[in-house]
Design goal:
Elements (H helix, E strand, L loop, with lengths): L1 H11 L6 E5 L2 E4 L5 E2 L2 H4 L2 H17 L7 E2 L21 E2 L2 H10 L6 H21 L11 E3 L8 E3 L12 E3 L6 E3 L1 H10 L14 H18 L5 H17 L3 H9 L1
Length: 259
């Protein structure tokens, strides 16, 4: 399954615990010692900076080739949507967009209201894909290995563990939603989780907090894919801050279809 492949890839790079067994409806892997976060914990500077550093490592070191192939998106009838990036590169499949398309395809259409709902979501997805699907990524990687479900319960804070004097370290668990996606989506989706299941919008990160998170993320990313030019680093930070703001509403659409 996709989750098994994702877990194996992560474990091979020390980013997930060893996988012991696979069942028909689940996996068994080694226990990770630590504390499960609450939404309130995600807002703590020491925790969100640790999340940013770990996410930067994920996005810079994990190849998407192990969980996807490059081909154009197709609808349920096999018609080519011609979704390619600005350079003419085909998008990976699966990806954020194909996952949402599959969820829409699974919706019931027994009534006229259900058909209208499905058609509306199809139109919304097409619009969003056209608007956001060409978002440029760092180093030409427009699609990265994204977790896509970084809610508080999937972040484990390691006990008494420090990373080169930088503070706390964390691990991510539960990779069933992992798929190639723009980095801005993974970050925006995590920011949405600061509000918890109660959707406390007042708890979402401020502009200053978002910029701080992204600065930590990029520092970590560049530990694994170095760039020394200060102007490039500043440009990347400004670009990613803007992209994450642009993607702000997409997690609601993504999880709305899922629900």
């Amino acid at each position: 399954t996709g989750e098994t492949r994702s877990h194996s890839l992560l474990a091979g790079r020390g980013l997930a615990p060893p996988l012991f067994a696979r069942f028909e409806n689940g996996l068994l892997y080694k226990y990770i010692a630590g504390d499960v976060c609450s939404p309130e914990d995600l807002r703590r500077p020491d925790v969100y900076r640790a999340v940013a550093r770990r996410l930067g490592q994920w996005h810079s070191t994990l190849p998407i080739a192990a969980i996807s192939s490059l081909q154009t998106l197709q609808d349920q009838n096999g018609d080519d949507h011609h979704h390619t990036d600005k350079a003419g590169n085909k998008r990976p499949k699966p990806s954020l967009w194909t996952v949402m398309q599959e969820w829409i395809n699974a919706l019931p259409v027994a009534t006229q209201k259900e058909k209208e709902r499905k058609n509306m979501l199809e139109q919304e997805l097409t619009y969003l894909s056209n608007e956001l699907g060409q978002t440029p990524g760092l180093d030409g990687y427009d699609y990265i290995f994204a977790h896509c479900d970084l809610l508080s319960g999937n972040v484990i804070v390691h006990p008494e563990k420090r990373e080169g004097g930088k503070g706390l370290t964390v691990s991510f668990i539960d990779y069933e939603y992992a798929t190639p996606a723009p980095a801005a989506f993974d970050i925006a989706n995590h920011f949405a989780e600061w509000g918890g299941f109660d959707c406390d919008y007042s708890a979402l990160p401020t502009r200053t907090q978002r910029a701080d998170f992204i600065a930590q993320y990029l520092t970590s990313y560049r530990n694994f894919a170095p760039v020394s030019d200060p102007e490039t680093i500043k440009r990347e930070q400004d670009q990613l801050v803007s992209q994450v703001d642009t993607f702000r509403g997409l997690p609601g659409f993504y999880w709305g279809i899922w629900s």
